[in-house]
UniProtKB/TrEMBL annotation:
The keyword Mitochondrion applies. One of its GO terms (molecular function) is NADH dehydrogenase (quinone) (non-electrogenic) activity. It is a peripheral membrane protein. This is NADH:ubiquinone reductase (non-electrogenic). The keyword Flavoprotein applies.
Amino acid sequence: LESCEDVASHLQRGIRELPSTKALDRLLVEGKGGTLRVQSDKPVVVILGSGWAAHSIMKVIDTDSFEVCVVSPRNHFLFTPMLPSTAVGTIEFRSLLEPVRVANPFVDYFEASCDKIDLEGKVVYCTSKNCYEDGFRPEFQIPYDILVVAVGEQPATFGIPGVEEHCYFMKEIPDSVGLRQRIQQQFELAALPGTKETDMRRALHFVVVGGGPTGVEFAGTLSDFLREDLKKKYPELMPYVRVSLLNATPSILVQFDEKMRQHALDNFKRLDVDVRNDTPVVEVTKDIIRLGSGEELPYGVCVWSAGNAPRPLVKQLAAQIPEQAQYQPGGRPSKLAVDSYLRVIGVDDVVALGDASLYVPERLPATAQVAGQQGAYVAHLINRGFSLGAGGMEQPPPSKRVKDLTLTDRMHEMLAATMAPADDATAKDIVYYNRAFEFFNYGVLAYLGDDKALTQIELPGTSIRLTGALGNLIYKSVYITKQVSFRNRVLILFDWLKAQVFGRDLSNY
Ligand code: FAD
């Protein structure tokens, strides 16, 4: 009560920043002199991010036992694998999203970015994404008991001049919104009376940089849009349209085997998508893409999907922890090295997952699959009362519930098998106790356009490889079942149906 009154008097006097004192440890301040909420004595778990890893934790974490605060500048989860389809209107933006407040109404969500982490004081410093009309942007701090860093990565430009200014990325919904508008605008520009042929060719040259699944899928979906919708509305412009896929390495889709890559190349040849391997881009100006060979490509729209780079927060955090230095490539902080329990090496009570983390025991791909599984794993660790302690390779996280630290997995299983059904919860705790994270690779998928896809599914002891229309059927079935809610499943099915029956939307708003 004493501290509440203190805070209230600060606010009455218009002081926007509150001193972080011990008495305020469980108080959060929202907004401009806004509501004060006294937190309970439950341990506070702060989750940074609302992507695949964070969403998966939110779905599993026990909010009865923990006070869970989510901080992310994005107030929703995004089903990234289908983002390229939104840029051409096959799928509507909202069909791929789930707001954090819907994903788990029992977490506290703050639309803000974390800018700094005080590892000793166990406090995160955040800045609101939004500001008031007078320009005031609230800043606040949250003390944590356990911190989950799941901030992902950002598109990598590799310092190539002009990429940031002139290219479209394919990472978030606003990227896709901008790209969708730009594609429409290019057609309307080229359709104006008196447009010179060279200008038409330039405006309608769509270039995708990056031969990974995202670049390939976008090239495929764009070619569908051109063939199935734009061709009907702008038939006179079709001779000037061109799609190029530029890839700096010798092959596209390195995640797939040789035969499937060849299948992708053959499909693109049929669809008139010009795939150019070993073609690095060295500069992008407002109307020219300059290649390593010196060649200059006039272009209308360039989509940059050439890889990811660490976020500043992750670099800053990795640089603060001396034990991280040996894991950073070339000594440059990039990802947070984590041990087999996903604890950040060299620091207490911080876990990192998904694209922001480097799993030291084994090389894992930076994919949604990994991030989602890591999120669920960490939520189970937290729910079972593990104190996540300091990250280091050897020690398993000590549990508050299970005292015996020396049992092997086999012993846990035997013990669990002999336990009475009434003790089931404890038995489960014992069975799972001490288990390091294990990634189950279910395979990879990529849409190629013209209702064809590559599907490489890994099952225990076997792997299934499908291409063409059958591959596409599996691709669609997997993505429908993988949606995070029934609502999204229904919306996507309707979107597919709408696009088939009425075509994709061509309005430019
Ligand atoms: P993200 O999902 O990127 O989430 C990061 C979160 O952190 C976001 O909510 C962000 O707003 C938030 N954040 C950022 N900075 C801060 C900060 N300072 N403070 C607080 N929060 C912050 N993977 C597959 O397995 N299969 C696919 O088919 C596939 N296709 C893809 C297609 C596209 C277009 C893209 C972009 C990615 C695709 N991926 C795919 C990769 C997959 O999306 C990523 O590996 C996955 O999103 C990583 O999850 P994450 O939780 O680590 O990060």
